[in-house]
Amino acid sequence: MPEDNPIPSRGPACLICGKPAVTEHRPFCSKRCRDIDLGRWLRGVYRVETDEGPEDDQDPAQAG
């Protein structure tokens, strides 16, 4: 008999609030925490560091 609530995973805690992660939203506990994380990526709060400088960010079609 399926349950309405997803089963919490035995892995790490939610990256946003620290509650146990849920399989459906892993590594988060809920859609809310998943959406908070996505918003942080879209606003530029999180960044992946590279060796490229600002001038390396040009579109090759626009470059000289």
Task: Give the gist of this structure.
This protein is α+β, with helices and mostly antiparallel strands and 64 residues long. Helices cover 20% and strands 14% of the residues. It is built from 1 helix and 2 strands.
SSE diagram, text form:
Elements: E1 8-13, E2 20-22, H1 31-43
Antiparallel strand pairs: 1-2
Would you write up a description of this structure?
It is built from one helix and two strands. It has 64 residues and is of the alpha+beta class. It has a domain of 36 residues: Erythroid Transcription Factor GATA-1, Chain A (2-Layer Sandwich). The protein has a two-stranded antiparallel ribbon.
Tags for this entry?
Erythroid Transcription Factor GATA-1, Chain A; 14% strand; alpha+beta; two-stranded antiparallel ribbon; 20% helix; 64 residues
Instruction: Write out the CATH superfamily name of the domain at 9-44.
Output: Erythroid Transcription Factor GATA-1, subunit A
What is the arithmetic mean of pLDDT? 82
Order of helices and strands: EEH
Label the overall shape: elongated
- C-alpha-based Rg, rounded: 18 Å
Strand order of the largest sheet: 1-2
Largest sheet: 2 strands, antiparallel
User: Which CATH top level class of the domain at 9-44 fits?
Assistant: Alpha Beta
